[in-house]
Request: fold
Amino acid sequence: MSVLLFTALVGGGSFCAGLLGSLTGLGGGIVIVPMLTLLFGVDLRYAIGVSLVSVIATSSGAAAAYVKEGYTNVRVGMLLEIATTFGALGGAYLAGRIGTSAIAVIFALVLLYSAYRSMKPLAEHGSTDTAHPLADTLRLNSTYPTPNGFQPYTVQGVPAGFGLMALAGVLSGLLGIGSGALKVLAMDQLMHLPFKVSTTTSNFMIGVTAAASAGIYLSRGYIDPVLALPVMLGVLAGALTGARVLAGAKTTILRRLFSAVVIVLALEMLYKGIRGGV
Amino acid sequence: METPRTQRWSDDDVDQLLGNLLRIGVIIATIVTAAGGVLYLAQHGLEQADRRVFRGEPPELRGVRGIIGGVLALHASAIIQLGLVLLIATPVARVAMSLVAFILQRDRVFVVVTSIVLALLIFSLTGSVRG
Reply:
């Protein structure tokens, strides 16, 4: 296959991944690695390296808008980034130590979990219960825009959320994904942030988390410019298109479809990982 | 602990600034990557693409110094790589700007929090951890 054809095909696939990822809120990152390894036969290490870079592009692009609209809780994000960057460094370190088969199996399990989570969307809840003492000390409690103006909310479960964020960071550094599903879970279920605040703050943190491990992948020679070109530009274009279409679109069917794709990719990844074909 | 915030640096001002910084970073990185890509495809488009076998990138594409050297020599792959480095640097610049904002807001706890994150990022980007 010539470089031109390869670039066009990978770019098209990445565009679809970015578009679906943004429409369903799952993020394009999780399907980039399986797409590159299973469809295009790219080595897993190259795939993870470029996936990290594309994750930074989409999350930073989207975060720019959310921060300005006032959804993102920058203080919560900053605090939890200590956990995710530590985790990401650990994950990137691990990625150089354990075999690609083991990484493929872990990846498959994370894909299955993400598909499962996306089947049951989280309900909106902003809590005004008594905040965790740490949330008061660190002034984490904030407000967010709703149709009825800015609503205040309190933050709970700070230590538990911090712990789960460290795990999200490890998975991000190990697998080259944003770990958005896990980040949202930590903020929604453990810290009781409003859903929109959880998703936008998660998105805000993804870029920093991915940058922490991307530096290590770059110095190891895992980031290939020729592969990154179509993946990064394709995913970014797809995600931006998705964000335009998103306003008011019903995404239930798309979510199911995307989850089905993710499950198929997960099973194939699991099979290859166990058989040792990655 | 509660310190009054300066007039010029409300949380909302900082949010606007961070948002703009992220947007500009992504735009610049995208332009550089695309420019390098056009050049690369013009020069190497008809060669064989093979990323099945992992060889690892050559040393000059693994660090900022080598990449800048390649860019000055107008190597297309180095220009793409520079775009990627600018992209990786975008969230790092965002954290650095948050640090400045927290210093100006005299928010000591968050100056420490942000410094830790920035230190970890610099630790990673300077290639201190190779694994």
User: Anything to note?
Assistant: Chain B has a mean pLDDT of 86. Chain B is about 70% helix and 0% strand.
